Amino acid sequence: MKEIKKIPPATVKRLPLYLQCLDQVDQDAIGISSKKLAEIAKVNDAQVRRDLSYLGTLGTRGVGYDVSTLRNQLQLELGLVEGWSAVIVGVGNLGSALAHYGGFKDKGFGVVGLFDDDSKKINSQVAGLVVKPLSDLQDYCNKFNVAIGIIATPGEFAQSVADELINCGVRSILNFAPVLLKNVKDVQIRSVDLSQELQILSYYLDRPILKAVD
Amino acid sequence: MKEIKKIPPATVKRLPLYLQCLDQVDQDAIGISSKKLAEIAKVNDAQVRRDLSYLGTLGTRGVGYDVSTLRNQLQLELGLVEGWSAVIVGVGNLGSALAHYGGFKDKGFGVVGLFDDDSKKINSQVAGLVVKPLSDLQDYCNKFNVAIGIIATPGEFAQSVADELINCGVRSILNFAPVLLKNVKDVQIRSVDLSQELQILSYYLDRPILKAVD
DNA sequence: GAGTGTGAAAACATTCACAGCT
DNA sequence: AGCTGTGAATGTTTTCACACTC
Q: What angle do CA A89, A91, A95 make, to 5 degrees?
């Protein structure tokens, strides 16, 4: 019988943060306490312990957590060891930034394709990959079993690109275009809207006393 | 006596979303119901009503919300009418993407300066602005009363740029570098880490049944 | 002594369901 | 009839506090 553990969404959102904290800790540190981790991540230490307890019994009472075991478990739980393939659609400044973004390779994602329908960009090289026209998308997805589509096009193309990606069998989409994509069953869509982040900051600019979320 | 209304952080995070929904609604629509708005924003309709009720009594029973009143109130509440000035530090692909990002101007932010310490970039033009060296930052901040600093440098420079911005009197920072910045009293810091977003997606890739947060 | 893992409490957020206005 | 605004119910997240282990 398969064991099913449900991790609360609020916790899932913090797991990548903990992973990042481990990179920022002393290179030669072998163990770390919830107190120390909490300090780096800027959260409560009970929170850290509760979050990590969802992954199993990882720590040792009276001692703390072993850094490398912890890292492995976080990566395992987040599915970062499966080597998911991703494509980026839209190779403007943002798409290029994403293609160059080293963080992805280290973190277990491989960008296997760049797509754009601007003829000036097609066949040019960005971050070691050749930009292809969207008509090649289907082939790529089949060949590399692409799991994740990253949309970095202007807003007006985002929905049709999303439709196309889903049509190619992509089940997870990270959208950077400032539009609301339609929901499709069984497809996970996350949107990052740069201007929304600024707007939230703006709210708290007027109200320096209040504590923001996240 | 000044009226103090405290808007829950979870609601603040949705206000920019509602604003975006209004842009996506029929241009000639004069009124909108919580039900319709909820559908576009993909949230529960009671949620919409509760959220908007924090801004005052904006709707009309039996009728709905007036689109333009609603937009005005949202902008007012988010502080988007104050015309905050922002600077971008780091003019690589990501910084350029941000500089070109039209959303900001429309949404009440003015990018008044671009800064980079790469001599190849200094004095070049990006999105109609001349890239300046970091040594000019203090002057700019005084001259334009800069409220927001956007960090788009590689990780290794992010903390020192943040220190410098804070030193120049900037009280709000939006950080795109994949590092955890130190907290400073009275300074709001929001971080957007592109690879963290992908990692969250990755978790749900393995578990198509679960519902993600946000 | 130091630091985890976790019940129980407290705080926060969402949703229901309906009274009240147009 | 239609739709808001909001008490009350429910669900989720955070935090406290301490028994337990090393």
A: 80
